[in-house]
Amino acid sequence: QVQLVESGGGLVQAGGSLRLSCVVSGSIFSTEDMGWYRQAPGKRREFLARISSSGFTLHDASVKGRFTISRDNAVNTVYLQMSSLKPEDTAVYYCNRIPPYVNWGQGTQVTVSS
């Protein structure tokens, strides 16, 4: 069974940076496209960025220029470097395959204070 374990969240002031990590086990990680998503309180989960197995990236307009997705196939990990954080970036952040596995990880909480 695939497991997704996100980490790296925390409390940060507006304008600050964080790097999120997601370790994937139970799959052939290097062959899969991966993505980052987030869900703010009372809102639907939204797509943020994706990276193909070969490293091609695509970022949603809401985070383009501030967030960068990357991966390290040697350690089955996908990253999300976040900078210039805003209070509206406050959410639980998740990674998953694209298309998503049915099961999601626990996510990592990011809270941006103004």
| Strand order across the largest sheet | 2-10-9-4-5-6
| Poorly predicted runs | none
Q: How many helical stretches?
A: 0
Which of globular, elongated, flat, extended, rod-shaped describes the shape?
globular
Structural class: mainly beta
Care to describe what's here?
Strand 4 and strand 5 form a beta hairpin. This protein has strands spanning 3-7, 10-13, 18-25, 34-39, 46-51, 57-59, 67-72, 77-82, 91-97, 108-113. The mean pLDDT is 96. Helices cover 0% and strands 50% of the residues. It is globular, with a radius of gyration of 13 Å. With 114 residues, it is mainly β. The strands form two sheets. A six-stranded mixed sheet has the order 2-10-9-4-5-6, with no helix packed on it. Strands 1-3-8-7 form a four-stranded antiparallel sheet, with no helix packed on it. It is built from no helices and ten strands.
SSE layout and pairing:
Elements: E1 3-7, E2 10-13, E3 18-25, E4 34-39, E5 46-51, E6 57-59, E7 67-72, E8 77-82, E9 91-97, E10 108-113
Parallel strand pairs: 2-10
Antiparallel strand pairs: 1-3, 3-8, 4-5, 4-9, 5-6, 7-8, 9-10
